[in-house]
Amino acid sequence: MAFMPFITAGDPDLDTTVAVLKELAHRGVDLIEVGFPYSDPIADGPVIQESYTRALNNGFHVHDLFEALKTLSADPSITLPPLVGMVSYAIIFRYGSDKFLNEAKAAGFSGLIVPDLPGDEAQELAEKTKAVKLDLVQLVSPLTPENRTKRIVQVASGFIYCISVAGTTGVRDELPPELTAHLESLRSLTDLPLAVGFGISNPNHVNTLRGKADGFIIGSAIVKQFAAFSDPAQNRDAVLKAIGDYAGEMAAATKG
Amino acid sequence: MTTSLSNVPDSAGRFGEFGRRFVPETLMHALEELTSEYEKAKQDPTFQAELDDLLKHYVGRPNPLYFAERLTQHCGGGKIYLKREDLNHTGAHKINNTIGQALLTMRMGKKRVIAETGAGQHGVASAVACARFGLDCVVYMGEEDIRRQKLNVFNMKMMGAEVRAVTSGSRTLRDAVNEAMRDWMSSVETTHYIIGSVIGPHPFPMMVRDFQSVIGKETRAQCLEQTGRLPDQVIACVGGGSNSAGMFYPFIDDESVKLIGVEAGGRGPEPGQHASTLSYGAKGVLHGSFGYVLQDDDGQTLDVHSISAGLDYPGVGPEHSYWKDSGRVNYTAITDDEALEGFQTMAKLEGIIPAIESSHAVAHALKVARDTGPEEIIVICLSGRGDKDVNEVARLLDRDI
């Protein structure tokens, strides 16, 4: 099973983002989701909202992230896992979708997740991502009926992002019991890998998913540790190590 | 083939290129269901009869189209008429929409309602509708707006609504919408979100416009009855744009009627100092729909300012974006100071204290009326009354209450 940690770009600055990416790469994660800070993230709970706010208050700009990643991708001393951007359509549209996709590709991204671009509106962007060989990951929610799911998987590439629970991002104690049946029904509708996200934070959750999903995403449980980077009383290397240790533990849990 | 400008949106929620649905997948099925339930309700004579009855006996419609004689004399131009939405129960136009959506909530078998509010008028109108029908009601309101609008907060609580303070972002209307959307993400199966303006994903911009169109329909009929013809100009304020959409829509195909939307010019045209989305914004996505937005080059929403908590919004309804680009409606801006002036002039000359939002439309009429001929007819949508604003106005004028 693949472990896909989510991190916020630019929280608190891009140097830290690069350091976190290197740390995660050393810990054997399978893919990294890079969140583009957005001013109005309606799918996100408080942890990721606050992280986005810190990054924006510190002057995060999309172009600077692309430049930083381009430099990192060109560094022969580091092998990065695939990077997937989590980015609002508000940002892509305003930046200019062609320009955004070209720069994302050049920065080393292999795909994008656009949480506010549902399958119905995704056709145009799906053609453009295909042309530059970027995957456009689609999300399926537990409230998505089967006829919608069938349409959504048609425009999806890379993997299917299965939202575990109706709600926003954030750590939850338990995964909903209906999740298993939902994954089974999805499995019958697509050959793409199934990655589960929202609410996952510990090895027990991972064990629940074993044999049913191909991967899982952890966001808030990692990003909540980012607040410490902005705390002058904390040592940056110690925070980095704590994030790395946690990622290492979760990566080990996938091997079970 | 010519298509009428009023024949929008299409089934995907498109007003030309604007509108549509840019929301997380979790909400999509509920929006599809809401669209189909609303279409059924619209065709259902029982639903319409119930709505009409409530608008008449509970809201107090039709409200007057009133000839403002002294204001007309003061300006020395065309005849100024006021559409008195301030005389509705709750003192603003917002209740036209909340009664309609509350009926729809019950039709869908849902028992809980959430709403966002800026000035508190939509929050109060939602609390009223929920009290009337026995629905649970949670209103999201920015912490800064709670400070500015204490009276409305108290009223909502009296009627049994829970007011949740929003402390994220700019702590105003935009953040209240974000928080309501987040609530809806986890409660959508049992909860209806009564959006208070012509914003958000399809079908909200269409549905809210339809419920508010009673304003323009009445105005059109009253004007014909009282003057024998249609007005020359119709002026309404625009934040998200619900009173103006409801006022303008029935006039869209009347080409002789000039329609003017008045946005909040705040302290001036610099970014962050105003909320004039259609004057200074760019095309983009906010709160689930595509339209003009005040945002930076990266698509991040900008902070906005207005003296009025109800116009303090960095987006605008997709249909207004469509009307702007088609040239059917002209949009302009009135500053905080001009709105304050309009507020006082209306109070002194007509004995009517207008909402500070509506004062923007009043101020624009004061500006342009003197350049019109005495036979011209100007209608101002007086979208709400100003009791809620007197503390803030007294503070700004440096007076005690």
How would you characterize the overall build of this protein?
The complex is a heterodimer of chains A (256) and B (401). Chain A is an alpha/beta fold and 256 residues long. Chain A contains eleven helices and eight strands. Chain A has helices at residues 14-26, 46-57, 62-73, 89-95, 97-106, 123-131, 146-155, 179-187, 203-209, 220-223, 236-255, and strands at 2-8, 32-35, 83-86, 109-113, 135-140, 160-163, 194-197, 215-218. In chain A, strands 1-2-3-4-5-6-7-8 form an eight-stranded parallel barrel, surrounded by seven helices. In chain A, helix 4 crosses helix 5. With 401 residues, chain B is α/β, with parallel strands linked by helices. In chain B, the strands form four sheets. A six-stranded mixed beta sheet of chain B has the order 3-4-14-9-10-13, with helices on both faces. A four-stranded parallel beta sheet of chain B has the order 7-6-5-8, sandwiched between helices. Chain B has a two-stranded antiparallel sheet with strand order 1-2. The radius of gyration of chain B is 19 Å and the shape is globular. Chain B starts with 13 loop residues before the first strand and ends in a 5-residue tail after the last helix. The mean pLDDT of chain B is 96.
